[in-house]
Amino acid sequence: MLLRDIPNGQQRQPIFMSINRPYIGRFAPTPSGPLHQGSLVAALASYLDAHHHRGKWLLRMEDLDPPREDRAASELIPQQLLAHGLKWHGAMTYQSHNHRRYQETLAQLKGKNLLFPCTCSRKMLAAQAGLHQGDCHSLDPDQPTATARPHAWRLPVSDEVWWCEDRVYGHYGHNLMNAVGDPVLKRKDGPYAYQLAVVVDDHDAGINQVVRGLDLLDNTPRQLYLMACLDYEPPQYLHLPLMLNPAGQKLSKQNKARALDLSTPLQNLLSALRFLQQPLPPAELSEHTQQILDWAIRHWRVAAIPPHRAGVM
Ligand code: GLU
User: Fold this and answer.
1) What is the pTM of this model?
2) Using a 6 Å cutoff on CB, does residue 212 contact ligand 1?
3) Is 227 helix (H, G, I), strand (E, B) or coil?
4) pLDDT in tens, 26-78
5) CATH classification for the domain delimited by 16-110+165-173+201-312, as one of 3.90.1150.10, 3.90.550.10, 3.40.50.620, 3.40.50.300
6) Is 42 in the pocket of ligand 1 (CB under 6 A)?
7) pLDDT band with cut points at 50, 70 and 90 for residue 311
8) What string of DSSP letters covers 86-106?
């Protein structure tokens, strides 16, 4: 039997609480390509929110899946940030250096009966909208037959609603079993999954504020569930509207979003502030990136961020 019971008190996040711990935030890009204007919005918002609360802003490279990544991008991203005056605290960290910790966490979950091997193919899951809903929970991970074939490792989710209180979008949640199914924590083809790595790394770095794009809001309930399984304290969340290209698609490398133009950092910053509907500095305080950032830190207003889902750049 797999344990599905998480103590009741941990199922819910409290309604927005004031920030009473020293703030630790982060920017965590996947180096699938250079940063574009949409990624600058996420980097800038997380930086401003951290500095406005006199907190720390860390940088973590989410390089879990080398074949899908671009080595040049992991080198370029920190340079792009610095060209916009966005300096992080301490040393940048890399998920590719943290495999031992992810493996330990899987062992910890296995010890709690919260990890099971899964040999289901996409084709098999297609019949249930791609959702894994306990299909191979009966496999005993310690039986060699269960792990003889290539397998992923999954977390069994509970049949209940998990929600977060987002600082921009408010109350958001869904029934894990019906909306997302049992998440993969280690993929059949080898890499550790984003869901596992993000939870472990945020916890280990003491991150208590997560500011990121709205495309990740629907990942949040399952991440909170995983945190509860590991007895981690959840951070607070602030998701940001997504920047769309004129064709209405999210700016992304797949949609061929242009890399940030490093010859126009001032304009890039101002345009990101405009997108977030933040007050803009006067012209005489817009001559250097540091002036813009200092002004924007002082005038940072979460309440001004438009809670629509997306906006055109
Ligand atoms: N690595 C993710 C991305 O680049 C962000 C993950 C997160 O902020 O939780 O979209």
Assistant:
1) 0.91
2) yes
3) helix
4) 999 999 999 999 999 999 999 999 999 999 999 999 999 988 888 899 999 99
5) 3.40.50.620
6) no
7) low
8) -PPSS--EEGGG-HHHHHHHH
